[in-house]
Design brief:
The protein is of the alpha+beta class. The chain contains one helix and eleven strands; from the N terminus they run H-E-E-E-E-E-E-E-E-E-E-E.
Length: about 180
């Protein structure tokens, strides 16, 4: 380059563009796993919120509510007992789906290799609340602790409902140490 010319040579521009492409290619897998983890956490929080909402609706409307999970379709639906006192439920709102993800989808899991202390390793097909916000079975009997599991990336999430109706959101990366999330 001559002393009184301004700008960059073609070689310099090519090297800079090559380095930018290399750094971009190296960062995509990290961003992908971070995004999948974020989606998994978000979906677990959505399920937790939906269970809390169903519990509060059951209490405020003095009727049974349930959230039904479809592991095969990665969906869940809130349903209201109608007519009251029967064993018939009608959908309240639309069916909700988990995030599909850019590279790896977040999925409901039928079971988990480990569980938060005191909870089952199998995902509950439904969580039904009586008019006092307590989880019950189809006969109205109080159920022991329930759980719903989902996975996003290398993290497994659990949304649990205790016998007294307390809804909690958990996560684990190794399957044995569960941490309550907020």
């Amino acid at each position: 380059m001559k002393k009184n010319e301004n700008g960059f040579s073609l070689t310099e521009v090519t090297v800079v563009i090559g380095l930018l492409l290399l750094f971009s290619a190296l960062s995509i897998p990290m961003l992908s796993s971070s995004f999948t983890a974020w989606q998994g956490r978000s979906d677990a929080q959505n399920i937790s919120t939906m269970l809390q909402s169903a519990k509060f609706r059951a209490i405020s409307k003095a009727t049974r509510y349930q959230v039904v999970f479809s592991v095969a379709n990665n969906t869940w639906t809130v349903q209201r007992n109608e007519p009251r006192g029967s064993n018939t439920y009608v959908d309240e709102g639309s069916t909700m789906s988990l995030s599909s993800g850019l590279y790896k989808a977040v999925e409901l899991k039928a079971s988990s290799s480990g569980a938060p202390t005191g909870f089952p390793t199998a995902t509950s097909a439904q969580v039904r609340f009586n008019s006092r916000g307590i989880p019950i079975d189809t006969n109205g009997q109080i159920l022991p602790n329930l759980a719903v599991y989902l996975a996003g990336g290398d993290t497994t999430y659990a949304v649990t409902v205790s016998t007294i109706g307390k809804v909690q959101f958990w996560s684990t990366k190794n399957g044995s140490t569960w941490v309550v999330s907020h």
